[in-house]
# Entry
Amino acid sequence: MSGHSKWSKVKHQKATTDAVKSRAFTKASRAITVSVREGGGIADPDKNFRLRLAVEQAKAVNMPKDTIERAIEKGAGSGAAAFENLLYEGYGLGGVAYLVEAATDNHQRTASEVKHVFDHAGGVLATPGAVSYQFKRSGVVLVSKELRTFDMIFEAALVAGADDVIEVDDVFEVYTKAAQLSNVKQQLESKGISIEHTGFIMKADITVKPDSGIRQKNELLVEALESLDDVQNVYTTME
# Structure
């Protein structure tokens, strides 16, 4: 019986891992497809910066090369027309504002799923424009510390054209204007600085700091939203 129990646990863990991997592949594939479409149909990552970032993120979740290529082909063909980027706005607990980015081929389904998650968590889906003014589209580069000090990265980032640098845990977050992201990334790499991630985000202009109980409920709301296949990114004003 013990052997059976152990195998059942292993199968359960594998099923969970496979589900997470599948979800990550779905999100990465859609990001690639939309990046090609919004890049004017340019399917060459070297000529489409957003596509290059999407491909890098797909590789980071170990997406196979042929799957990446299929997503690019879909974006360059008629398949991309079925997908659209949508932005949902809402409020969680304690006045925390939310922006939810989605890539979907069925906006009614996605809107219903997002609303259900907000309602279940005690939040509320807001009208367009109710929340978005609190965020600004920015670029972010996560830089590995690797024996580098904050002052070293701060100086290199400012010279490259970045706006700000914040030290968190084991990385430095380098923030840039969206249009400057590619240039800042290239300049940091040219100095031999190791980059862990590059991407576009919606950065909150003003943040709120809820107490631990409210924070935990908001974190659960973020997790629930991110678990939806159509949702690509979730941003909040929570500090």
